[in-house]
Structures are given as structure tokens and as C-alpha cells.
């Protein structure tokens, strides 16, 4: 019988890669907690209406990428394609937004029916940050600084570039849209097919068209920054000033518009050229109108989400994952002789008690080829138990040297010392 397979674009994350995911998640948590952010967990399924009203009816996500279905009550539900909408819904529903300042973060799977390729999947994972109740550009700067700190801690800061733009207020953008449409209409026949369709529905998206012909036409098109209202301009100038002061480099990209409708003022993307076509590892911006659009009181907000798969790929490509993070255990304990076999469990338990944090894996099958088998595990420390006339003793290997005939009562101190050495190497 044919075997059932996973759904295209929805990947198993296998045990050889999960240590890298855990490492990344741990580093992200540490940075978020150092900025005082609180975790929020939302459901994976929401009412379809929520995404239509927030992301926008005429976006690629809502038009063609959502996993939408009817549940048994005939209600239209959707697997979340992103986290911002659900976070606003949850915040509003539980009275966390009005007249308050909040800094939330979340992580989990998102679903989009996109064409799967390297860095683009149908189930993918985001770690996102959403802040509420702060209108000044300090908070825009903070979320960007927070992400920059994370790249620095992960050792990937040199491989990513920050692209920055301001979309201005909804009113100023409307005027810009009109002029852009008027300009592009003159060249209608030369535009690519997608851009022609977008001319009516979502003209700003034409700015990031991949077509060379369309890009050539755009060279002389009106530029969004010329249309910024005074308040947005001041907001943006203050933000770039704060980033300059923090030593964070950025490129102003007047064509950066983002694919979701809820943004205003600041938008940004962290992009790498190391992953091919899917190079945006983190993206976000300000969405001051969304809470109100979803039925709440006007509440300023800014946030971003990073793509976990893309970051894992980047860490692997740049080879910056510390060796100790690539394996789930530090010490492998096995018996070399039948007489010492009974001590493996006891000894492993003793080491877990006496060396806090040490990750111990015990060998639980036969003695055959035990030396080779222990080495194949990739453990950086191996402890083989033997027995002599005095009882059970151990031999400990640390990659470079070995310590033989260690009596049981000295094992903890020798293992603890060697573990420190291995960790630092
Ligand atoms: P987004 O740009 O749609 O924004 O997604 C954010 C990040 O998720 C992308 O930069 C990328 O790294 C990752 N990503 C998106 N789609 C895929 C995919 N199909 N496969 C793999 N990774 C993907 C948002 O989702 C907004 N909610 C971000 C935000 C939060 N803005 C304000 N707050």
C-alpha cells in the first residue's frame, strides 16, 4: 500500500536540526526578555473575517494564499497566515490595549498556500513582536534595535541589511496612489501582467514588481517620500536619528511597501543576499490604524515578525552555530564490561544530580563495538565504565585526551572539570 506522505511545503523538522531551532529560540527569548517583552499565545485558527479585515481583501495573502475552510457549524475559519491580526484580536478581546502600553511576543506556525521553494513554505514559523499604545518613534527604534541585537548575538549582523521606508499617513498615501496610478496608466501596455491587475486593486505593490520592464518604467514614477505629511516626515527623521545614534546601519528604500495593507509610517525589512530569492528574514512596521479597523479604540502599534526557517538556513549557511548547540547531549555513558553494565543508569543519574546542566545520554543496548558506537554519537565527552578488582571505574574521553581508572566517587569532579574545558574550546 502506498505510504501517506507529508503535505507539500509542510516540513518535518527532524532531530538533527531541532537543536539549531532550540538554540535560535533560546537566543531570541533571551533578547526579548532583556527588553521586558511578555509572551502571548494565540490560537492557530481564527475567523476568516479577521484576516480579510486586517491584511486586506486585495492582497496576495487574502486573495490566493489562505487555508480557509468551513467547520462543522458552517463557519468560515482560516489557518493563520500571520500573527499580527490574531494578536490585535486577542489584545482587544481581553482589554489589554485601550489606554495601555504593551510589548508582546509570540511564536508558532503560520500557513500560506505559496509555491514551495528554498526559504518559502506552506507551513512556516514566525517569531513576532507587537507593541501597542506608543506613537513616538522611540518604539520603532526599539524593535529595530532589539532585532539588531539578536543578529549580533547570533553572529549574523554582517550578513543582513536593514531596509527602511516611511509609508506616511493613510491620507498622504492616498494622494500618492492617485498620482502613481495616473503615471503608470500612461505605460499600461508595457507593464507586466500582475502590475496591470494591481493598477486598480493595489497599485503600491507595483513598486516591488520583479519585472525589469516595469522597474524601468518606475524609474521616473512619483516617489512616496515626496508625499509624506509633516508628521510622518518628522517621525521618520527622528527614527533615523535614533538608529544613527545607536550605530545601526540602514538603507532607505523608497520602493519598500510590504504585502499587507495595515501599515502606515515606518516599514522595514532585514534582508540577506546569502539565501537566494527568499532573502527577507524579518519584516514589520507601524500599523496605527489596525486596532480601530478591527473595532477597538485608536491605538498606535508597531511590530515585526522573523521567519524562523530562513534564520535557521542563514545560521547554517554562515556556519555560525556553536558546536555545542548541534547535539542534544554532552556526555555519553556506556559500559565496557558486563559487570559494569548495571552501573550505567546509576552513574548517569548521579552525574545529572551533581553536575547541573550537564546533558547525559545513557547507552541502553548491548556491549558489542561499544567504543565505536559511543564515538559515532558525536558526544564531546564519553564515559565508559569498566570493572576491576576494586569495583566499577570509569574512563573519560574529551576529544583530545583520556582519563583512566577514575573511581566512582571522583567521577563527578572529573566530569565537571572536563565539561568546562570542552565548553570553552
Ligand atoms: P511578512 O512579511 O508577511 O509579515 O512575514 C514576516 C516574515 O515571515 C518574512 O520576512 C519571512 O521571513 C517569513 N515568511 C513569510 N512567509 C513565509 C513563507 N511562506 N515561508 C517561510 N517564511 C516566510 C508579517 O507576517 C507581519 N505580520 C509582520 C508584522 C508583525 N508586522 C507588524 N507586526
From TrEMBL:
GO terms for biological process, alphabetical: histidyl-tRNA aminoacylation
Top-level taxon of origin: Bacteria
EC number assigned by the record: 6.1.1.21
Catalytic activity: tRNA(His) + L-histidine + ATP = L-histidyl-tRNA(His) + AMP + diphosphate + H(+)
Family: Belongs to the class-II aminoacyl-tRNA synthetase family.
NCBIfam families named among the record's database cross-references: hisS
Assembly mode: Homodimer.
Designated name of the protein: Histidine--tRNA ligase
Species this chain originates from: Neptunomonas antarctica
